[in-house]
Every structure is written in C-alpha cells, then in structure tokens.
Automatic annotation (TrEMBL):
Every SGNH hydrolase-type esterase domain range: 55-245
PANTHER family tied to this protein: SPORE GERMINATION LIPASE LIPC (PTHR30383:SF27), THIOESTERASE 1/PROTEASE 1/LYSOPHOSPHOLIPASE L1 (PTHR30383)
Organism, as annotated: Sporosarcina koreensis
Record bears the keyword Lipid biosynthesis: no
Taxonomic path: Bacteria, Bacillati, Bacillota, Bacilli, Bacillales
Protein name: GDSL-type esterase/lipase family protein
Name of a matching Pfam family: LPAM_1
C-alpha cells in the first residue's frame, strides 16, 4: 500500500515538472527574430498590367512581316506575357513607315501621343534608318561618307531631343532602342565604307541609351549581313517574318543582359 502511495505522489511530481516546463517557455513576442523576417517579397511577386508602346519607323511597325504578327514588336509584346510581374500586356504600336527622327519629334508634340507615353511602362523604338535613306536618295549617283557624318551630328541632337521629350512625360518607363543594319550587304559581302558609317550611327544611338540610365540598346547589324539566312522581305530592305523573329529574340536577350529587374525598379523579371 505504501508503495502504491509513493508511486502516486511521484507521478504528481513529474506532472508538475512538465507543466512548469510548458509555462516557463518564452512568449512569441520575446523570441529572437526568425530568419523569415530577413526575406523580402519582390515587387514582381504581385503581377500587374504592363503598358507597352512602339515608336519610330517601319521596323517597329512590322513592315515586311508576311505572317502579320506585328514584326519584332508584336512578338516581344507576346513574349512579355511570360515575364514575372506581368498580369496582362496592353500594347499599342504608334510607329509608322518612313518616319524620320524629325518627324518623330513632331509626333511627340501631339497631345494624344503624349498621353500614351505617360501611361507606358516599356517603350520600344527604332529610328534613324530613314534619316540615312534620305542621304542615300539625295546623293544616289555620288554617294560618299561625308554627308552621312554631317547628318549624324544633327541626328544626335534630334535623338537627344526625343529622349528629353519622352523623359519629360515619363521618367520611369524602360526605353529599348534597336540599332541600324546595312541592307546594302545584300548587294556585296565585301567590307565597304558604308559599314563604318552604320557602326558610327549605332554608336551614337548606344551612347544615348547609356546616358539615359533606364534604356537598353539592341544591336541588330549582325542579323542582316547578306541574305544567306533568308531574313529579308522581297523589297530587300525590310525584314521578313524570319528576320523579325531574329530581332525579337535579340530584343529579349539584350533586355535580360541590360538588367530587366533593375531597369523596372524590381517590378519585372524574366
């Protein structure tokens, strides 16, 4: 009987120790910060509607695309649906065949165009090709490098004005600008003075994007060397569907290299 009594008492003592152990644990508020609080949710975690616009000339308009998929612009806008941070894409192509840099400046003075730019999250642009073609047409039978460099100085000023106008309306949008290519490479695959001219014009465009800080330059000159890959439209000036597909892939590749997350202030990622 005495043994049974001692066992009962001993069990109560054990129970009391367990209860004390439970009640003596620290509260949640007194515990040290968990590692969970060191993790920050990226802005692109919550998808939003992304507004995309196209500016410039026929390359952004998609002239020559026999599949009617909007050239590189339509293809890139479609691919953006798979980016992190994108709920839906609202795209509007404001580019037009034949547009030069001075004509783009005139377009940017329109109230309707300015309203579109203010809403844009990403702006895709091609410009400069028709500025060069103007020189070609004016000097067709006596074509030298000199008039291209005279025009380049004026083009640089106009391009700077274009960026200032866009930034005056929208300081946050990502601006993605493609370089120029040499359609004369179809005629000859030999190195010529015109290639150096193209390189210098492309350098001017690239420098402008670097100076902007939230822009990305997309080189495409190597995509259209001769026509061995059948990338030209039947007019031998504009890309065909295959050419635009190559451009779209290059755009996506370079945007990634430029740092999409940084350019979008953390709102987008691939």
């Amino acid at each position: 009987m005495r043994r049974i009594f001692l066992l009962i008492v001993f069990s109560f003592v054990l129970t009391g120790c367990q209860e004390n152990a439970i009640y003596e644990t620290t509260s949640f508020s007194e515990r040290k910060g968990l590692a969970l609080f060191d993790y920050s949710v990226p802005d692109y975690f919550i998808p939003e509607k992304v507004t995309v616009i196209g500016l410039g000339d026929s390359l952004t308009q998609g002239v020559g695309d026999e599949l009617k998929r909007g050239g590189y612009f339509g293809r890139v806008a479609l691919a953006m649906n798979d980016w992190k941070g994108v709920e839906e894409i609202d795209s509007k192509n404001l580019a037009k065949r034949g547009r030069r840099s001075d004509q783009l400046i005139a377009q940017l003075e329109s109230d309707d165009i300015q309203a579109e730019i203010k809403k844009a999250d990403v702006i895709y642009m091609t410009i400069g090709g028709n500025d060069m073609m103007k020189i070609v047409k004016a000097n067709l039978f006596n074509l030298t490098a000199k008039p291209f460099y005279v025009e380049l100085g004026m083009f640089e000023n106009r391009l700077d004005e274009i960026f200032k106008m866009v930034r005056g309306l929208n300081g946050d949008a990502i601006i993605v600008v493609a370089g120029l290519y040499n359609p004369l490479s179809i005629v000859t695959d030999e190195a010529n003075e015109f290639e150096t001219v193209i390189d210098d014009w492309n350098e001017a465009i690239e420098i402008q994007t670097i100076m902007d800080g939230k822009a990305c330059f997309v080189p495409v000159v190597d995509l259209f060397v001769s026509n061995e890959n059948m990338v030209y439209h039947s007019d031998f000036f504009h890309p065909n569907a295959k050419g635009y597909e190559s451009m779209a892939n290059r755009f996506i590749e370079k945007i990634d290299q430029c740092g999409l997350t940084e350019l979008s202030d953390g709102k987008l990622d691939m």
